[in-house]
Amino acid sequence: MPDILDKREIAKVIADVHRNYEPSISRIIHLVEDRAASETEPVKLLEVNPETSESGILPIFFGSDPPEIPFSSVVIEVTEREFEAICAGSLRLPEGWKLGDTLYPAAA
Questions:
Q1: How many domains is the chain built from?
Q2: Nearest Cα residue to 42 out of 77, 19, 16, 75
Q3: Over residues 31-43, mean pLDDT
Q4: Range(s) of the domain holding residue 41
């Protein structure tokens, strides 16, 4: 189980970097799946950005950058409306992926 904790921590690091780089991001959610404990599975993030274009679910893959980021990662960027559709179940994440912890909350 230590690998899962490491991936959660790395997810937080990646979320912080992305939020600092793109201040218009309003929410970042860790995406999880059953295989998340596997060392070969990337860290997955859903980023809600009101300034992005609606384009559906388009995962973007990034390689690892050891030692700071020892896992590859996948980011899906969506608009607020697309996020609402994901929550309502009318826009689906890739098979087996689901919303996990919110790493960066929406502005109040």
A1: 1
A2: 75
A3: 78
A4: 2-104
